[in-house]
Amino acid sequence: MYPPPSTPTSNPAGVQQIAVLTGSRADYGLLEPVMRAIDLHPQLALQCVVAGTHHTTASRDDIAFPTAAAIPMQRINETGRDADAYALGRGVAGVAQALVDLRPHWVVVLGDRIEAFAAAAAAAVGGHRLAHLHGGDRAQGVADESLRHAISKLAHLHLPATDVSAQRLVQMGEDPARVHVVGSPAVDGIQAIGPDPNAPQLIVILHPVGDHEHAEHARMATLLRVTQSHRRMVLAPNADPGAAGIRRAIEEAGITPVEHLPRPRFLAVLKGARALVGNSSAGLIEAAVCGTPAVNIGPRQAGRETPPSVTSCDHGAGCIVAALDRALSLDTTTLSHPYGAGDTGPRVAALFAKLNPAAVPLHKRNMF
């Protein structure tokens, strides 16, 4: 773990405005404990910036904070790489205007999605200090991995989840004094949630990896076929290119997917289930924290730290069956994970309160 600056200085200007951008229900579930800790801290003021699929009023119903700015990006019935590129452009422009209006001391983003990259680009070019949660992770199987590392090169403050991710950031040339291991916000609050006694045996989540729709369809069809003997809950894929193929396989199997589970409900089901099967990062992070075995299929999470509760396999039917058999026989009660103690939100808020943003230069010096 890399130490904080030796003599952090309080902000002499008083309360700091912290703009946190959420681009989807998925990342809001992770950001919520950080946002809540910022909102509760007497030296900080939260500015909730809503972008991406969260920009519509209906999608904002689950956000517990007033919206300081809403940034339209994606459009209904427009999907694919070209549509994402146009959405990214709208996001950069929208966030740039929001930052002019809000003038935050810090802009906070998480992960690797185009919404986070749009905010990072607008912040860095516009001269606003940028903090990045979950930088330094690896997920080689998705195109967004390059966006994660690009955000890291734009960021002025790094808030990685693990020591390994912190080390990777330093290897990328980032100043160790700007790198603070805070754990994953995905862990916050999990211990307070009990298992759902009516949870299914399996939770099935398969997201696209940017391949052709027919390839994505074939993979989901195989997964649904080999898990059909189990009582299962099938969650809808995210909106990345190729998702239509996965949805078509779900429809052909006569299944109505769960479009969204509020995070407390998802965690309760995850704790009560016998295994999570698919390629979501939840199998490597939340499932590990909950003590639920996971079968990680395919390359989407390749390179990410893999706790011992995870069994990885390819998309072949036989491989999935063998991995699932192992997962269902696994005792996770004594297994560990690297994602922290569940206090990421308060740690991030305390760090912002200690740092004087004026003492963090906008100009970055690579440490190669």
- Over all CA atoms, what is the radius of gyration? 20 Å
Total of helices:
11
Question: Span from first to last CA?
Answer: 19 Å
Low-confidence stretches: 1-12
Write the layout of secondary structure elements.
Blueprint (H helix, E strand, L loop, with lengths): L15 E7 L2 H16 L3 E8 L15 E5 L9 H22 L3 E5 L3 H13 L3 E4 L11 H10 L2 E3 L3 H9 L30 E4 L7 H14 L5 E3 L8 H10 L10 H10 L2 E4 L7 H5 L3 E4 L12 E4 L3 H12 L15 H11 L14
Parallel strand pairs: 1-2, 1-4, 2-3, 4-5, 5-6, 7-8, 7-9, 9-10, 10-11
Helix pairs in contact: 1-11, 2-3, 3-4, 6-7
Question: Brief overview, please?
Answer:
By secondary structure, this protein is α/β, with parallel strands linked by helices. It has 11 helices and 11 strands. The longest helix is centred in the N-terminal third of the chain and has 22 residues, at 81-102.
Q: Key features?
A:
Rossmann fold; five-stranded parallel beta sheet; 11 helices; 11 strands; 36% helix; globular
Verbal overview:
- The structure is a single chain.
- The chain is built from eleven helices and eleven strands.
- It is α/β, with parallel strands linked by helices.
- It folds into two domains: 16-188 and 342-359, Rossmann fold (3-Layer(aba) Sandwich), CATH 3.40.50.2000; 192-328, Rossmann fold (3-Layer(aba) Sandwich), CATH 3.40.50.
- The protein has a six-stranded parallel sheet, sandwiched between helices. Strands 8-7-9-10-11 form a five-stranded parallel sheet, covered by helices on one side.
- Helix 3 (114-126) packs parallel to helix 4 and helix 6 (213-226) runs parallel beside helix 7.
